[in-house]
């Protein structure tokens, strides 16, 4: 995203939402890397949930993570 991320309206919305809720991280580090969440099943189940940040501050839906985690089947030994 580099500098173009600073000009996106959604990035500023996410920043102010975090600021109002009392976020107090150290804000150190790379700063240009977007994150993501993967839920991977056992064995051949593969990826059950994939969430990639499209802009800074995107959050994954907790209910969708829990739903995907419940789908994980134990692998037979």
Give a brief outline of the structure.
The protein contains two helices and two strands. By secondary structure, it is α+β, with helices and mostly antiparallel strands. A hairpin with a 6-residue loop joins β1 and β2.
Which tags fit this structure?
alpha+beta, two-stranded antiparallel ribbon
**C-alpha-based Rg, rounded:** 16 Å
- How many beta-strand elements? 2
What is the 3D shape? elongated
In whole angstroms, the N-to-C terminal distance is 44 Å
Unreliable stretches, pLDDT < 50, 5 or more residues? none
Average residue pLDDT: 81
Helix content: 25-40%
The main β sheet shows up as:
2 strands, antiparallel
H-E string: HEEH
Task: Give the amount of beta strand, in percent.
Answer: 5-15%
Please, how many domains? 1
What is the count of DSSP helices, taking H or I runs of 4+ residues? Answer: 2
State the strand order across the main sheet: 1-2
**Assembly form of the protein:** single chain
Structural class: alpha+beta
How are the SSEs placed, and which strands pair?
Blueprint: H1 9-20, E1 36-40, E2 47-52, H2 62-70
Antiparallel strand pairs: 1-2
Protein described:
By secondary structure, the protein is α+β, with helices and mostly antiparallel strands. It has one domain (4-71). It has helices spanning 9-20, 62-70; strands at residues 36-40, 47-52. Strands 1-2 form a two-stranded antiparallel sheet. The longest helix has 12 residues, at 9-20. The model has no long low-confidence stretch (mean pLDDT 81).
